[in-house]
Design goal:
The structure holds two protein chains of two kinds. The two termini of chain A are 19 Å apart. By secondary structure, chain A is mostly helical. Chain A has six helices and no strands. In chain B, helix 4 runs parallel beside helix 7 and helix 6 packs antiparallel against helix 9. The longest helix of chain B is centred in the N-terminal third of the chain and has 39 residues. Classes of the chains: A mainly alpha, B mainly alpha. At the A-B interface, helix 3 and helix 6 of A face helix 1, helix 2, helix 6, helix 8 and helix 9 of B.
């Protein structure tokens, strides 16, 4: 059982997110002081694993409650929070890059006629994913870790291949839906392993927006906008 | 938008297939959920033996948060339903006999789900809804069913953790909904009321996440949150089309009419990059 290391009141607001992200990073550093293992300042790559070490299997993580945590366990918890932050940042880079590529393709006329609502969606989603990326990178830099600037290495080849096949708005929307569903599922899955209260809130806050992006994309693609009774983790990246 | 004709269009068969597919997915999900219940029951037994209760510091934080919310929610919805009603609704202190913060949050969630089901059920009896746009009818029916599934899941988890099942609708929002119901005169009124409830649920579940000590409960709530926010997004888009005088564009599949959607339809459902918790109910609000 993972217990949040701090609590966050309902005064959590959008304006607080970026400021809060810096606090998350700083708190991860502070919590890890005194520990000599799982150095939180180690560079973290975009797949979420600390450089020079193998990412742990989240399903086998130590679930020792905070009150009985040893220094090593605390450091491990901060490590997993930073790994999630890096994983999330890598997904956000991929989303930003893909939406930007879609905008460029639309501007070049490669997607045919683009309905105004779709153009507005792409512009808005791009900007929001950039904000999400900035928030996660603020977490990472606040903890002394390297910011993520490269897209998720596991998904990028798949997305690149899919984008190469996109010739119209429908194809672009289908690819965007796939990305949004992966992101929302990953943020949901992250709730299983995150231990920092503010990181839990940040992941949850972004999960909501990505799920809403997906709902509108479903509608654009002619499908029911709320297809599941419970959000799923099937597409989560680990 | 206003110059557009109002065609009577909906692909009922396609919509029905989509909903049926969704229900199949739900059945699979419930099967997985049931498979985990024995483990959860063991966990609940452990918690009861350990005598877990919320500490005084946490309870004090809830009380402070609730007082902050009185003003915030009154400002948010008071313009529609009356600040006095909102403040009154907040003024009562729900008891929390179970004393377990996880249980309290689940009980409050059940109270919100019960109210959502009751509200959609009532909306479906209104002539301008039941005899109106078929997509809105389908949405109301499907969403009501999904909320009932959420209520069942939260109730089951409450019992697994050793708590008492909540059987009453949310004490804060029930009088607000009752007051609003008398004034419902058009689909847009229903959409706005439903959107308020969906936002309250989404905000509540987001605010609750970091307070859970039980990860399974947190995952369940995050999973439901991911659906309530989609209800909200849909209602915001539908509301914008109704207010924009384009109800004919509320159609599934939208087909070629996607070109007629106003640009705002692409962003109205998510006005901010981050969700907040401005309408969040405190954990003890619906506690038994």
């Amino acid at each position: 059982m993972n217990e949040p290391t701090t609590t966050l009141s309902p005064s959590f607001t959008r304006r607080r997110v970026l400021g809060g992200a810096a606090v998350i990073g700083a708190s991860l550093v502070a919590a890890a002081c005194g520990s000599d293992s799982n150095d939180v300042t180690s560079p973290v790559n975009s797949t979420g694993s600390t450089a020079g070490s193998q990412a742990p299997d989240p399903t086998s993580m130590d679930s020792t409650p905070q009150g009985t945590a040893t220094d090593t366990t605390v450091a491990g918890e901060e490590n997993i929070n930073l790994q999630v932050a890096a994983l999330a940042a890598g997904l956000e880079v991929l989303a930003v890059d893909t939406y930007q590529a879609a905008l460029d393709a639309a501007g070049a006329g490669s997607l045919g006629e683009v309905p105004p609502a779709v153009g507005e969606f792409v512009t808005t989603a791009l900007a929001q994913h950039q904000e999400h990326l900035d928030a996660w990178n603020t977490v990472l830099s606040g903890a002394g870790a390297a910011e993520v600037t490269e897209p998720n290495a596991t998904l990028k080849p798949t997305v690149d291949a899919a984008f190469a096949e996109v010739t119209d708005v429908v194809g672009a929307a289908e690819l965007a839906l796939m990305l949004e569903e992966i992101a929302a599922a990953t943020y949901l899955s992250a709730q299983n392993v995150l231990t920092d209260a503010d990181a839990i809130m940040l992941a949850g806050s972004i999960q909501i927006i990505d799920a809403q992006h997906a709902a509108i994309l479903y509608y654009v693609l002619g499908e029911y906008p709320v297809p599941d009774v419970f959000a799923k983790t099937d597409l989560a990246v680990s | 938008m206003s110059q557009l004709a109002r065609p009577d269009r909906i692909d009922e068969r396609a919509l029905g297939e989509l909903i049926e597919e969704s229900q199949d997915l739900h059945t699979d999900a419930m099967a997985v959920g049931r498979a985990t219940l024995p483990d959860l029951a063991d966990h609940a037994s452990d918690r009861r033996r350990a005598g877990y209760r919320a500490d005084s510091k946490t309870v004090a934080e809830f009380e402070r948060d609730r007082q902050q919310l009185i003003h915030r929610v009154a400002m948010a919805v008071g313009g529609v339903f009356g600040v006095g009603a909102v403040s009154y609704a907040f003024s009562s202190t729900a008891s929390a006999a179970d004393g377990d913060i996880d249980v309290m949050q689940l009980q409050t969630a059940v109270s919100l789900e019960l109210l959502a089901v009751a509200t959609y059920e009532a909306a479906l009896t209104l002539p301008f809804i039941k005899d109106g746009n078929p997509v809105i009818v389908k949405f109301a029916e499907t969403t009501m069913s999904q909320h009932d599934e959420h209520r069942q899941a939260f109730s089951a988890q409450t019992k697994v953790l050793g708590g008492t099942d909540q059987t009453a609708t949310n004490p804060k929002y029930t009088p607000i909904v009752e007051a609003a119901k008398a004034k419902l005169a058009a689909p847009i009124d229903v959409v706005k009321l439903a959107a308020t409830l969906e936002e309250a649920a989404t905000d509540t579940y987001l605010a609750d996440l970091s307070r859970y000590t039980d990860v399974t409960s947190r995952m369940l709530m995050a999973s439901v949150m991911g659906v309530e926010c989609q209800h909200l997004a849909t209602l915001l888009a539908v509301g914008a089309l109704l207010e924009g005088g384009a109800p004919e564009l509320i159609a599934i599949p939208i087909g070629a009419d996607i070109a007629k959607l106003p640009a705002a339809a692409g962003s109205v459902a998510f006005p901010d990059a981050f969700a907040d918790v401005s309408l969040a109910s405190p954990p003890e609000e619906g506690a038994v």
